[in-house]
Q: What sequence folds into this?
């Protein structure tokens, strides 16, 4: 039996999916962070652990094709994983792609279009033939990632220290433990980036409840994300990915509202590891890609 392997390796976790070449999932695995930029050599170890879990009782030699979608990878040779694959016993050389490619494939069976990702960071990528041909933003929290979760958190802290008695000041106080604006400034200057990013959830909730200051930050985030998308001006469907655009958030609502007015076909990324397995299956399965996509990822309503 020919099996295919898909991996989604990001800054939070590594996930692997093992499937038959016709789209039946037979194994899954999860391990630690797999971004080689932030996790270093430990990334390959985490990816290997997730793959071992997914393989279960199946021999590694039964894998006929593998695709690894890895955060921090720009090209197919940026971060070779040959030693890890050798240790696992995989005999097929894996195709390594950036995680934006698998995010795009997780939302549509089309081979070209655009993916807009907004989670901790933010980036848009033009995908052509399942390859990245252009990007916008993705510059990190200091220089960009506009509209991302961390960006929303930073805007919240900036607004809070200017109006400490307001509702955003109370949100920051609850997260930081600061009792004055001066204490909040010192807290922010120590760069507790995870805690700053964690402000996104309560700000989204406050915006949904009609808090004007929170709503202004969310509106600005949507505006920045649409501007990032517009930098690419790519034809084809747009896939929304990342926690802010996949979950039920006012950021997703705002971005969808703009794309619906423009009548842009829009999908939502589901399981990037399963999408990686789909890409792997396409290497050995000559049947039409749409039924195989449905088998691995379910039916994707395309909003237009």
A:
């Amino acid at each position: 039996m020919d099996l295919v392997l898909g991996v989604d390796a990001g800054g939070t976790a590594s996930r692997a999916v093992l499937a038959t070449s016709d789209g039946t999932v037979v194994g899954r695995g999860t391990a630690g962070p797999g971004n080689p930029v932030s996790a270093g050599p430990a990334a390959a170890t985490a990816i290997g652990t997730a793959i071992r879990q997914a393989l279960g009782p199946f021999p590694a030699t039964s894998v006929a094709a593998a695709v690894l979608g890895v955060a921090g990878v720009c090209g197919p040779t940026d971060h070779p994983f040959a030693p890890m694959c050798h240790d696992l016993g995989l005999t097929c050389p894996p195709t390594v792609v950036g995680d934006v490619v698998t995010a795009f494939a997780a939302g549509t069976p089309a081979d070209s279009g655009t993916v807009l990702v907004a989670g901790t960071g933010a980036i848009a990528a033009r995908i052509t033939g399942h390859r990245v041909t252009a990007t916008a933003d993705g510059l990190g929290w200091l220089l960009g990632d506009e509209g991302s979760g961390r960006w929303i958190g930073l805007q919240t802290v900036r607004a809070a220290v200017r109006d400490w008695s307001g509702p955003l000041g109370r949100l920051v106080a609850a997260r930081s433990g600061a009792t004055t604006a001066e204490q909040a400034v010192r807290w922010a200057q120590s760069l507790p980036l995870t805690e700053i990013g964690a402000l996104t959830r309560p700000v989204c909730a406050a915006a949904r409840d009609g808090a004007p200051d929170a709503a202004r930050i969310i509106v600005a985030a949507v505006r920045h994300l649409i501007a990032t998308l517009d930098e690419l001006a790519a034809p084809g469907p747009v896939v929304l990915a990342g926690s802010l655009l996949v979950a039920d958030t006012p950021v997703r609502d705002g971005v969808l509202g703009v794309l619906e007015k423009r009548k842009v076909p829009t999908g939502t990324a589901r399981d990037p590891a399963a999408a990686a397995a789909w890409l792997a299956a396409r290497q050995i399965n000559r049947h039409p890609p749409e039924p195989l996509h449905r088998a691995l990822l379910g039916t994707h309503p395309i909003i237009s």
